[in-house]
Amino acid sequence: MLVGVLAAPTHAARQESLTVDEVIARASAYVELYVTALSTVVTEEDYRQSDFRRGRANPTRTRLRSEFLLVRLGEDAAWTGFRDVFEVNGQRVRDRQDRLASLFLDDTTTAVARARRIVEESSRYNLGNTSRTFNIPTYALSYLLPSNTGRFRFDHDGVGCDDHPSAWNIRYVEIETPTLTRGYQNINLPSEGRFCIDPVEGTVFETEITLNHPAFGREVPATEAVASVTFASNPDVALWVPTEMRERYSQRGGSRTSSTARYGNYRQFSVSTSENADPAPDSTGDR
Fold first, then answer.
1. Which of 10, 73, 140, 146 is deepest in the core (most CB within 10 A)?
2. Which structural domain, as residue segments, surrounds residue 127?
3. CATH of the domain at 260
């Protein structure tokens, strides 16, 4: 009992003496190791989407179940996410198998290009007409990589988030161009949002991104996109992994799409990939 009484103030004192820059440095070191540890993980995604349109009494809904694969392409890269839908609204659209994982265990020189074709095939099941470029649950973590932290301004925004009362909430704004996320006709889309971080260990418990895309005539309406992700410790892969991703795409004029994706059945395997294996220029995910 005495040990516990003495330890608590010591931990609190360690937090109080930290600066935002120090906490970000610890989170950056954590993410740098995490990229390697999570470099090849496959999970099952339960993705529920609702599309609300002006003039409609009820939204259109869909439920997609997919194999979701996270792969690191090259030593200096973050993750690329590949989604392979195997069930739509309870109906099987293909056999349930680790089709994506099998690609990277087979011929890695063509695996990425073949996986992208699977992603394009699966993207047709998404609701709404907004192109989704950050619906990868680890997307925001790439902002904390050492090569990227200098692109952002970080500010301490209080203590405590959900099940982590001593974690720091840190707001961020992307201040450098070209931005990491690009929009229609390759325009800059500065990100802003929040991280929930253990200030001592650097563990990231929650991420949030907000993007505001301007209108382009009648072709592209002004759109606000928000994505938040929660992480939990998973004994199967001995990591803090994404458990839930919530998205909202709100277009000027009334259309809105909201989604919730939940993740489970994590499995990890070993592959080797080449940065030159992917001829496609965009590696931010599917629509």
1. 140
2. 2-277
3. 2.50.20
Number of domain units in the chain? 1
Chain segment 173-209, per-residue pLDDT in tens:
999 999 998 888 889 999 999 999 999 999 999 999 9
> Does residue 55 lie in a domain region?
yes
137: closest CA among 220, 34, 50?
Answer: 34
Each residue of 143-181: pLDDT tens digit? 999 999 999 999 999 998 888 999 999 999 999 999 998
CA 137 to chain centre: 2
Residue 166 domain-assigned? yes
pLDDT digits (tens, 9 = 90+) for 22-77: 999 999 999 998 987 887 788 999 999 998 887 677 888 999 998 888 877 665 55
* Contact call for residues 61 and 48 (beta carbons, < 8 A): yes
Query: Is 285 a domain residue?
Result: no
